Known about the structure:
eleven-stranded mixed sheet; globular; DHBP synthase; alpha+beta; Alpha-Beta Plaits; 25 strands
Amino acid sequence: METIRVRLAITGVVQGVGFRPFVYRTAKEFQLNGWVANDRSGVQAELEGAPTQVWSAVERIRSAPPPSATIGELVAEQTAPKGYDKFEIVDSAVDSAEKVVGAAAAMSEIAALEHRIKEATLAVAVAPDIAICRDCRREMTTSKNRRFRHPFITCTSCGPRYTIVKAVPYDRSRTTMDKFPPCPQCADEYRDPESRRHHAQPIACPDCGPQVKLLDANGVIISGGWGWGGSTDGDRGGPSDNAAIRRARQLLKSGKIIAVQGIGGFHLACLATNSASVRRLRRCKGRAESRPLAVMVHDLAQANKIASVSATAAKIIGGPEAPIVLLRSRYESELAPEVNVGSRYTGIMLAYTPLHFLLTKDMPPLVMTSGNRTGEPMVTSIKEALNKLTGIADAFLIHNRPIERRCDDSVVQIEGSATAKVIRRSRGMVPGEIELPVYSRPLLACGAEQKSVICLAAGNKAILSAHLGDLKSSAGLQQYQYEIGQLASLTGIKPRLAVCDLHPDYLSSAFARQLDLPCIAVQHHHAHIAAVLAEHKKRTQVIGVAFDGAGYGADSQIWGGEFLIADAREYKRAAHLAYIPQPGGDLASLNPWRMAGAYLETCCADLHHLWPAKIKRRLNKEQWSLIWAATCLGLGAPKTSSIGR
């Protein structure tokens, strides 16, 4: 009988998604021998057997990968058979020059960063973090299951991926789970081709997995152990429940604020139904009233009690990405009004990790906002949390599985009844390739200053970082540089060009100009329009309308209400709103009522009696007459064409 051997090289999101077990099962089904392994760029495999069977298996692998996998490219090369006598999953291919992704943490000098960008040789293959799946939820709520109430249950279909990986190829020894040797039962499941946990790298159970404990505001143990003293009852879950999580629920019900360690960083949590707790959280965190707070619920039934959840919204909020979804609030909602002051929408997410699932059980909705003071990056380590969140949190619910990569929650908005628009790509969505409608030389795009994100691109592919927040503090800039090193290591893109915002004073622009690379400055609103063109894979010239807070213009003025005739390469400013004073400069970008007042004063000063009552109340509350008087004198009021946010 004729035998052939086909070698496969597969790139894309193919690590941490059960791809090797999938190839193993496919090979067994088609009675093939050979092997499959991870490598730096993705997955390699060799299939040997009858030609019809081999090519049928290749087509199965190409057309029906695991649900969380995305094949970027599959290259199949036929070669002479080797005479394999079985099929197996072999150790990952790693050469002696392995680059540890997390090594970028120590990088602070620009010269070191340039070296990191230019020398990285990896490719994106690691999956995003995946929300807890239905099977794991069922197991952890089944009293006779050995993972009953285990806060770190996972399988090949769910669990942390991106936020725990230290190096690629993605194997347990290169993740932050390397400090937790699997027990004999977990090791058996890991090796069993019929198990849902076959080669699931974060596999764990109450006998061998991470543990949870609760600290008070001073860092003193309230409940929990792992060698630090205190009760160890239920630290990993089990029939007696988890003592630390149970006590945390009690504190939340009493009105306390708790810092909760998640998978990509800390959250600050309190009862979303307790006005006093929400007000205190806002005050201590420095969160403006105009900015809503995200809410976490236990299940869709609870979400539907506080917001209108369409079929599209239910699919997204309960999907593997489990983002925050902006939903229209119900008038009879039990939420405290301080959660989303002045907004018709509530940002809702489901409990997406086992720990969150246990914490929210039998609880009212919880505010679950990023664990940081406004303007600073979300904290990721226990030491950092105890240092930076003291004075906000009354207690700290922590665990001993380190967070390797900071990753805030993604945000999605539902437009109409069926269209979803991504507002913030982060947890559950990064890393991941975006296909571009044009080809680019390798470049680093450094982003703007508010809601910053960086991007690496090459060919027709682009990779966005997780949401980085604002670049207005030394901590924010340090995190920004760290993230560039991390992303460069992960992708292997070697930029030959830096791209930055036209604004001369942005920290991101100053950073780009200091790199030893050619640098191109792009006008802010042209970048917005080009991004929409890329999103919809359009290359044609369009009339682009950009209504944005503020952006430095080609005439050195502040733009923001722009009509551009543009394509991805160039633009012409066809029209714009008239220049008017911007009260307080950058403060107007953060407080839209300032621009509303400026437009009313400029265009409708003699129609004061017709101004909307809601705006008049806000202006009176903010002592608008004094602000406008200073504006008319030119004090801190540059001219702008911006319509505001």
